[in-house]
Amino acid sequence: MASLNVKINNLELSNPVMTASGTFGYGLEFADLVPLHEIGGIIVKGTTLRPREGNDYPRMAEVASGMLNCVGLQNKGVDYFCSHIYPQIKDIDTRMIVNVSGSTPEDYAECAARIDALDKIPAIELNISCPNVKDGGMAFGVTCAGATSVIKAVRERYHKTLIVKLSPNVTDIAEIARACEAEGADSVSLINTLMGMAIDTERRCPKLSIGTGGLSGPAVKPVALRMVWQVARAVKIPVIGLGGISSAQDAIEFLMAGATAIEIGTANFIDPAIAYKVKTGINDWLDSHGCASVQEIIGAVNA
Fold this sequence. Notes:
Radius of gyration: 18 Å
Helix content: 25-40%
Distance between the termini: 29 Å
Structural class: alpha/beta
CATH topology: TIM Barrel
C-alpha cells in the first residue's frame, strides 16, 4: 500500500481526499454510509457570523453534466455552530475544516476568530466568492484588492491553517492566487462554482429563483483542471483542487496538475461513498504503477 499522507502548511492529512463544503453536511449525515476516518478531511458547510436563510426556492437545477445552485449560504450562524454542531463533530477521526463566508472583511474576521478558539478545528477555508456589500455586491474574490482585504482582516484574528477558496469567474486566477499568498494564505483551493443559468422555456423564466447560480459537476472539470495547473505553477503554497471530480482517475489528474490534495463536491450527491472510493482508487493506481507515495505524482504532468 502506498503512502497517501500530504501536508497543507502544518496540517497533516492521512490522504489527499476531502469533501467539499456544502455537499457533505457536517459529516454526521454520512456516518452510516462511509467510514469518515478514511477521508482525509471534511469541509463543513458554509458558516457566517450571523444566521442566514438562504435564497428562495427553487435554488437547484440539473443541467447537462452538472447542476446549478443558488442556495445562498443557508446556516444558523457561527455561534450556533460553536455551541451545537462543534460538540457533535469534534471527535470525528479526520480533519474537520470550517468554510467561512461573510459580507464584509470584518464579518469574516469575527467569524474566523470564534472558530479559532475551537481546539479540534485545525483550519478554515475562506469562501471569497461572496458579494462585498460595501462595494456594490461585487464578489471579494474577483479582484486582488477584494481578496486581500478579507485575508488581511482574517489573518489578524485567525492563527491556524488558512485556506482561501478562489473564484473561477476572473480573468487571471493565478494573479489572484499570488495576491492571496502574499497576504498570508497558507493554501488556496479552486475552483468554486462557475456562474451559469438555465431557462424554463414553457414558463419563459429562469429555473433558479435569483436567475443565475453556480455550475458544478463534471461539466466544469476541464476548466478547473486548467486553473489548478496554472495556479500550482504560480504559487509556492499548497494548492487544493476541486471541480467535477467524480473518480480516482479525475483526482489523479488534479494531483498531476499540481494539487497537493483534492475535494469532492457534487459527486457526493450521486454516490455518498465516493470519497472513500476515490481514496482507495488512488492507492490502487499508485500500487499498480509502482509508486511508493502519492508525493511522486503531485505536479508530475509534463507540460
